[in-house]
Automatic annotation (TrEMBL):
Organism of origin: Hymenobacter psychrophilus
Alphabetized UniProt keyword annotations: Endonuclease, Hydrolase, Nuclease
Record-linked InterPro entries: Transposase_HTH_dom
A molecular function GO annotation: endonuclease activity
Ranges for domain Transposase Helix-turn-helix: 61-110
Region of interest (Disordered), ranges: 39-58, 148-167
Protein name in UniProt: Helix-turn-helix of DDE superfamily endonuclease
Domain of life, per lineage: Bacteria
Compositional bias per record (Basic and acidic residues), positions renumbered to this chain: 155-167
Length: 167
């Protein structure tokens, strides 16, 4: 099982999380409050707690440092949930739940620290303004599955024309 205490040096920490030890430790304290805020936001009047805070079985990811290691490792390497669960000693369904909840907590923490990168660029002019001092810009994109519409009219509107013959 991967644990914060088993990581011995900066090189190993950088390989697993992308951060050195000093940056990881500096991020761990604000991440604790980010986790708490995210947990409080998850439970509302529509979805109340089943137990008091702190009640119930203790999780495998007990400390906030272990949770931070978990989410940074996941975001750096993107393993399958089966691999992630085996690495941290969790059931795979809990690995999925933790990944989603802790990603929100990390985003909340980074927003609080004002280090969250800008994600939304609305126009080509805005992109050129943001990357004006960059001589060469390479964009990497991932294809995502596109659900085929059921209505025939919508299917024709989405058709790329790839298999049309010009003859």
């Amino acid at each position: 099982m991967l644990d914060v205490n088993t990581i011995v040096d900066d090189r190993q920490m950088r390989a697993l999380t992308g951060l050195d030890m000093a940056t990881f430790c500096a991020l761990a304290e604000p991440f604790t409050s980010g986790c708490q805020q995210e947990a409080d936001a998850r439970f509302t009047d529509q979805h109340p707690r089943k137990r008091k805070a702190g009640g119930g079985r203790k999780g495998v990811l007990a400390s906030s440092q272990q949770k931070l290691l978990f989410i940074l490792y996941y975001l750096k390497t993107y393993p399958t949930f089966d691999v992630l669960a085996a690495t941290f000693g969790l059931p795979r369904s809990k690995a999925c739940e933790h990944a989603h909840h802790l990603a929100k907590a990390l985003e909340r923490t980074l927003r609080t620290l004002n280090v969250l990168p800008a994600r939304a660029i609305d126009s080509l002019a805005q992109m050129q303004a943001v990357f004006a001092d960059v001589p060469v810009l390479l964009l990497d994109a991932t294809e995502r599955p596109h659900h085929r519409p059921q209505a025939l009219v919508d299917q024709k509107a989405d058709y790329s024309g790839k298999k049309k013959t010009d003859a």
